[in-house]
Design brief:
Shape of chain B: globular
Number of strands of chain A: 9
Strand order of the largest sheet of chain A: 1-2-3-5-4-6-7-8-9
Radius of gyration of chain A: 24 Å
Oligomer: heterodimer
Largest sheet of chain A: 9 strands, mixed
CATH superfamily of the largest domain in chain B: Response regulator
Number of strands of chain B: 14
Shape of chain A: globular
CATH class of the largest domain in chain B: Alpha Beta
CATH topology of the largest domain in chain B: Rossmann fold
Low-confidence stretches of chain B: 1-29
Number of helices of chain A: 15
Strand content of chain B: 5-15%
Order of helices and strands of chain A: HEEEEHEHEHEHHHHHHHHEHEHH
Strand order of the largest sheet of chain B: 2-1-3-4-5
Radius of gyration of chain B: 21 Å
Largest sheet of chain B: 5 strands, parallel
Largest interface: A-B, 57 and 54 residues
């Protein structure tokens, strides 16, 4: 295969910041009763719920009675050293966040809606406490703003998980909800993180701990050490890709047998993505295109083997930091190791995908070689008590009786589209059961369908190349890729759909729905689409 | 089984799947996706550009030429057929995107002739072909896995499977080259492995085995294949890959004066394409290949003669070769399937027609078709052929000896099957 060199471009691969904290200037109040600034046209109130979580309320003078409760995404529960992509330099904060960003908040206020959001009492995976916080916060808001008639919930990532749970458990408080790019139940999510970390460790650096961190400061140091090692591996792979994308060298830290190193390291990276469920389209790599300056024969090999490896590299880099931080966090909460792959059959896991990505995996020989490494490597064993504790945390039932609107990118590398699909499938079962029960009771009227499912598909081709034929990763991430990568238009379309559902007790449908999402751009309502279900749901 | 039903408000596909027949609602036939009072829209994905495109890029136009011929003769029950071709560049990920366009944007009635094993695997899974109930007829791949009716309930093969092909080649090797050193070059994915597994099951042992990864084929990589084959002393070499790999293999071998008995798998053995890719005629002379169809040069064959006439008029300037023959034949079978689906075809009706009547369709290939309610297997056999100094293909031994078998452990047997006659003027009247 031709040696592809992209020295400049690969140094540009960057991990998107996963933190989006909208800072709102709020009056300080350590008690439940809100302290309001009394300003017009927008009044801002601050305070703390009984658990100490600070909140922010923003209400326009022309408040129309509907308020949007926003739940923010995952923030690490520990400080993260500078230099770590995505989270580097982060210090733990519980700054309240009443909306996705300042632009969206401003637009909602301008329309007469109120916004409210908590910073939550603890960071990390905090769904159970955040649900309680939000329930209390809704009561406080209603008490403070008695004109309130409707409360809608929305949130992203972990906040999407919280939003879905609020809709399931507290339908009396909310008239509609929109979980966006939602996280799945914690057990499968930690399995995905564990598989990715274990894959990086197994192929590239066995000194990565990957989980089972010690308690206290020692465990924190181990996790931060892992972060550094993981990104050292990724940086080394980037450099190897730059030197020779066809046959990039293995990192010196890799201890796989020399015979396996005859397989390009890029194929191991693709294997990690596939076995952990990370998508094969990334912010800048579509897995379908090649530089036009290449000869035709080389274009095909680039499309089949090189571009997908770049996509895997970029997506694994985006998912890695969260994988380490969430593993450390959840182990602390559960009291021990939660990832267990002692019985995982990785060959079965990739049985279908290996056909599709055969070239990127260096053919069946490459697949066989890489799987042999996975089969022969020591597995991670969980602490049974910790696993059981994890199961006691809130999970989704899919049982929702208020209108909900689900939206995610199909190539989100952190909360993959399968997360949304799992809730879609659960709701389908719930709806079907209700329908059967209704028929048994002699009721011929179908139950209302309360779930509107929207997807953001990346374009077929979007990788940009320089005139010299190098991939250009300086351009913005493609739509449908990256974590919770939404536009203001999309946020506002969701907000409008929530307002409609809240006012009418049902979701918008038919032509008006299609017109609304078409105008927002890159929002698809496809009743026949089903995202690949996460295989690790089955263990 | 999925049924399309509108529910008040939004619509939930997964729910419909869950409740199954509770939603059964018959749609008016004329309201079927991709079918209007004057048109039936069909779609195909295939590589129109790129390294894998030579030969394959002719199939869609050949199908289109046949459909134009049918349209000029009244269409199918008064409806004209429109074929939308999408270039997937042989990329599975692009196949998904392009098939999504066909199904969601272009709203085709059915897919016909989608090409490539990895491509169709990814399409079937990601687009949800079965879940959506989209008929996918005459797959241009012989991967035996697609014969699994349970997994692929709306898909129908046309080619004999790679496993069938390998079993027939294994029998031929045993009967004609016992004691010779055998070599094999195969595509290192499910395509090649499908064949390799069947060779193994048949007891064929290769002294030299060379795998190549799809997309890497080139003169440079072929150099390494030839070196390994020559070093291993292979006297008979089986090739199980695509034409764009056959060409550099044969060309490099000729340059190195390495001349084993070549046995080229059906996928990569079209003489015209090989010649266009620079393989000298002299190298092809004497090469053996399993063949399902008559030679595209055999004008004594009623199918070939008719298709050549159509090609001359409706596909002007395109040399008539195996790919054109295959494309035309898919067109012929598609029209029979559409007719069998009735005057107001539905997707469900088309699938039912394939299951109930597909095995009786006229087809240029010599072997029986395996369609039934429990089988989506297409043709089931090959004869061995030898290429001559003119780049033509003749039956090995002077006459067609048709072997049929299955993709499993069934025996390879000589068949006396007589294929149906070409419909008058090439226009089905079933």
């Amino acid at each position: 295969m031709r040696n592809f060199k992209f020295k400049r471009a690969l140094t540009l691969i960057a991990v998107t910041s996963l933190l989006s904290i909208t800072v709102v200037s709020i009056p300080t109040a350590a008690q439940a009763a809100p302290a309001c600034d009394g300003k017009v046209p927008v009044q801002t109130c601050g305070g703390a719920t009984s658990d100490g979580a600070p909140y922010a309320m923003m209400v326009p003078a022309n408040f129309n009675g509907t308020v949007y409760l926003y739940s923010h995404g995952y923030r690490p529960n520990v400080a993260v050293p500078a230099g770590i992509p995505g989270y580097g330099g982060y210090t733990v904060t519980n700054t309240p966040q009443p909306g996705p960003n300042a632009t969206v908040i401003g637009a909602l206020l301008a329309k007469g809606y109120g916004v409210v959001g908590s910073g939550f009492a603890r960071q990390g995976w905090n769904a159970d406490s955040a649900i309680k916080t939000n329930v209390e916060l809704v009561g406080l808001f209603k008490k403070q703003f008695t004109k309130t008639t409707k409360v809608v919930a929305w949130g992203e990532s972990l906040g999407g998980f919280i939003t879905q749970a609020l809709a399931e458990k507290h339908s009396d408080l909310f008239s509609a909800a929109a979980p966006l790019c939602m996280a799945s139940d914690i057990t499968p999510l930690m399995t995905m993180a564990g598989d990715a970390l274990w894959g990086i460790k197994t192929f590239f650096d066995p000194t990565i701990k990957g989980g089972n961190y010690s308690a206290g400061a020692a465990g924190y140091a181990e996790a931060m050490g892992d972060l550094v090692k993981v990104f050292t591996v990724i940086g080394t792979l980037q450099a190897a890709f730059a030197a020779n994308a066809s046959a990039p060298a293995w990192p010196a830290t890799s201890k796989v047998p020399d015979a396996i190193k005859a397989i390009p390291s890029r194929s191991a990276l693709v294997m990690i993505a596939l076995m952990s469920g990370i998508p094969m389209q990334s912010a800048h790599f579509d897995s379908t295109s090649a530089p036009s300056v290449l000869p035709v024969a080389s274009q095909t090999s680039f499309i089949l083997a090189i571009n997908p490896a770049f996509a895997a590299l970029e997506n694994v880099a985006n998912a890695a930091a969260l994988a380490v931080l969430a593993t450390h966090d959840l182990e602390l909460q559960a009291g021990g190791a939660v990832f267990d792959n002692t019985t995982t059959d990785y060959a079965a896991r990739i049985a279908e995908e290996q056909f599709i990505w055969a070239s990127a995996l260096s053919g069946n020989s490459g697949i066989g070689g890489l799987l042999s490494v996975l089969a022969a490597s020591p597995r991670a064993k969980a602490n049974p008590a910790a696993v059981e504790k994890l199961k006691t945390l809130t999970s989704h039932s899919g049982k929702v009786d208020i209108p909900t609107i689900l939206f995610t990118g199909t190539a989100d590398p952190v909360t993959t589209a399968g997360n949304q699909q799992s809730v879609v499938d659960k709701y389908a079962t719930y709806w079907a059961d209700k329908w059967v029960a209704a028929r048994k009771a002699g009721d011929r009227k179908r139950p209302a369908n309360n779930q509107l499912v929207l997807w953001n598909f990346p374009s077929a081709k979007y990788t940009k190349y320089t005139a010299a034929g190098a991939p250009d990763t300086s351009v913005p991430a493609a739509t449908g890729t990256n974590h919770c990568n939404f536009t203001t238009s999309q946020y506002m379309a969701i907000a409008d759909l929530l307002a409609y559902a809240s006012a009418n007790g049902k979701n918008l449908s038919g032509g008006p729905l299609l017109t609304k999402i078409r105008k927002a751009g890159n929002m698809t309502y496809d009743r026949g689409y089903s995202a690949p279900q996460l295989k690790y749901y089955g263990g | 089984m999925i049924r399309k039903t509108r529910v008040k408000g939004t619509w939930l596909a997964a729910t419909v799947l869950a409740v199954g027949s509770l939603f059964a609602t018959a749609l008016p036939a004329h309201a079927e996706t991709g079918v209007s009072s004057s048109e039936i829209k069909l779609g195909i994905t295939l590589p129109l550009t790129g390294a894998a495109s030579p030969g394959y890029n002719k199939i869609g136009n050949a199908m289109n030429a046949y459909f134009k011929y049918v349209n000029d003769n009244g269409g199918v029950n008064g409806r004209k057929i429109t074929l939308i071709q999408k270039n997937d560049e042989y990329s599975p990920q692009l196949s998904i995107a392009k098939t999504n366009e066909l199904v969601l944007k272009d709203k085709v009635f059915a897919l016909v002739g989608p090409l490539g094993t990895a491509n169709y695997t990814s399409v079937h899974k990601s687009v949800g072909i079965a879940k959506r109930g989209v008929p996918s007829l005459f797959l241009n791949t012989g991967f035996s896995g697609f014969g699994n009716k349970k997994t692929y309930p709306t898909s129908f093969m046309i080619l004999p499977s790679y496993a069938m092909e390998a079993k027939i080649m294994a029998k031929f090797l045993k009967e004609n080259y016992a004691g010779k050193k055998l070599g094999i070059v195969y595509q290192n994915d499910e395509f090649g492995i499908d064949g390799l597994g069947a060779f193994k099951a048949a007891g064929t042992k290769f002294d030299v085995s060379v795998a190549y990864t799809s997309g890497t084929q080139s003169a440079a990589t072929a150099q390494t294949w030839v070196s390994q084959l020559a070093a291993g002393g292979a006297q008979v070499v089986v090739f199980f890959g695509v034409t764009s790999a056959t060409a550099p293999l044969l060309a490099v071998a000729a340059a190195a004066k390495y001349a084993p008995q070549w046995i080229l798998g059906s996928v990569g053995a079209d003489p015209l394409t090989l010649r266009a890719l620079g393989v000298p005629l002299a190298v092809l002379n004497g090469a053996l290949t399993p063949a399902g169809n008559p030679s595209p040069n055999d004008t004594s064959d009623e199918y070939v003669k008719q298709f050549q006439e159509i090609n001359t008029k409706y596909n002007t300037g395109t040399a008539f070769d195996d790919y054109v023959l295959q494309g035309m034949n898919i067109g012929l079978m598609t029209v029979q399937a559409l007719r069998a689906a009735g005057s107001n075809p539905t997707r469900k009706g088309l699938i039912s027609a394939m299951e109930n009547k597909g095995s009786t369709f006229a087809s240029v290939a010599y072997s029986p078709l395996g369609y039934s309610k429990t089988s989506n297997v297409g043709h089931t056999g090959y004869y061995m052929a030898v290429m001559d100094a003119n780049g033509d293909r003749k039956p090995f031994g002077g006459k067609v000896t048709l072997y049929t078998t299955d993709s499993g452990s069934g025996p390879v047997v000589v068949s006396t099957f007589k294929r149906p006659a070409m419909p008058a003027k090439g226009l089905p009247n079933n």
